[in-house]
Amino acid sequence: xxxxGGVRASDAEREAVVEQLKQASVEGRLTLAELTxxxxxxxxxxxxxxxxxxxxxxxxxxxVPRVPAPAEPRKRRWFVAVMGxxxxxxxxxxxxxxxxVAVMGxxxxxxxxxxxxxxSVDIVxxAVMGxxxxxxxxxxxVELDGVAFMGDKKIDVMEAAPGMDVxxxxxxxxAVMGxxxxxxxxxxxxxxxxxxxxREHWQALMGDVHGxxxxxxxxxxxxxx
Length: 225
Hints:
12 strands; elongated; five-stranded parallel β-sheet; alpha/beta; disordered C terminus
């Protein structure tokens, strides 16, 4: 008889884990990069053991968190650069819509380590003879629309496969002799992150399923295999 953790996972069980991850993000327990990474891992998990690793450091499904009283809707948070630079990187919280204005300057919004209190981020970006760069983890869905006049709006992100319920970044762009760009890890340069316990064990379990050992950093087969 196989071990309980080796039981094959169903589509419904994968979706349930994705919902648990989304709830953890809303509660501020996961960054956008962590949510995206774990969501992709949930959809590719083959066994109960692999799914369990993705939520082992989160409250049990169905647990009722202590929720504060509803607050008034918050206004959009703006980042403005006029003949200069405005950059937001590292750990920060996104609990409202974002706005970026670059006038003969540059605005950089790096969302990869942000705690996004929801499953989507709404951004209004205006570039006038300047650049607005939005950096997201590869694997999110990006919706970019708007107008570019003697400028450009473009996406360079490795998006998730169709059918995955991954985070969404929506950008409304207005570019006049400037650029609004949305870049993923592969384009912007990956963040240096330590190998977390869940990732290392999850990759090892994935290797066991496919009969090979995987490098926990890359997920690729080890060279000595």
